[in-house]
Fold D-alanine--D-alanine ligase.
Amino acid sequence: MKKVAILFGGVSAEYEVSLKSAAAIIETLAFTEYEVVKIGITEAGSWYLVEGTVDEIRNDTWLSAETCKEVAVDFDQKGFVLTDSGKLLKVDTLFPVLHGGYGENGAMQGLLEMMDIPYVGCGVAASAISMNKRMLHQFAETLGIKSTPSIIVQNEKDRAKLESFIEVHGFPLYIKPNEAGSSKGISKVNERSELSQALREAAKYDSQLLIQKEVKGIEIGCGILGNEELIIGECDQISLVDGFFDYEEKYNLVTAEIILPAKIPLTTKKKIQDDAQKLYLSLGCTGLARIDFFLAEDGAILLNEINTMPGFTAHSRFPMMMKEIGLDYKEMIKKLLTLAVENHEKKLFKACK
């Protein structure tokens, strides 16, 4: 049997989301041709071999299990070493089910590249650019893909720049950490009195803050799976009674509704899918990504963000997009593992030329 290491947890504000995604994947790979090795990463950054149950992972009690053993990465032997015994643990493929922060910004991908083991998902550059919202928007603009007007502010010295942006675009606007996922630290600012608190909230997650004009319209997501030959998932639509698609809405759907397929004209859907595919290939994305757009009231299609490791419960948006076109959850997971191996073999081939 092929051994696949599922990495979960991590130094991220999306730690809990990672646990739920990983639990779903581990359950799905039971009784398949894969042997699952569970590697948990604490919020402090320590790595452990986990022998506990899926429920312990899902409920975040996995670390208290007596069977947890601390491990370290061994680059020379391309695997993990148990720190207490020195025993080597080899795996065939890595699935980093790590959301936000160090899981999606290229840092983890760099480490996995050094391990020289096939891993699921985008590489270093695609991950880093996708996580940096402002950099992503600038890259997209070189492809003719428009995005929402925005600026970056870092400290009080940028106050004049912020004031100029407000003078041009007015309120409401959004303040976001430039590098964060799951809408952590995002605030909608309706008037000047809310500005300082929103800046402080975003600064908890990043030193670079993205100031973004509000788009009147709807949010449309497009899932893509593949390396060079792509599978384009069905587009979904976010419907909100009020506010925006924040962390609470994304994972509890208090007032939000996910509409699948999106209720948009076929020509609009085709344009969104074409833009998503162009961006995916130009960035060099591999494995998967969910690319989110705004469809403005005037018909303009504007890039919002790319999520290179979207949520992975069976009812998360990305798996549902794939299910809608006939790719069920188990086959999707197995396809991602196959794509990881194919991408690694391609890199080895290039290195040998």
Remarks:
- The radius of gyration is 20 Å.
- The mean pLDDT is 92.
- The CA atoms of residues 114 and 264 lie 44 Å apart.
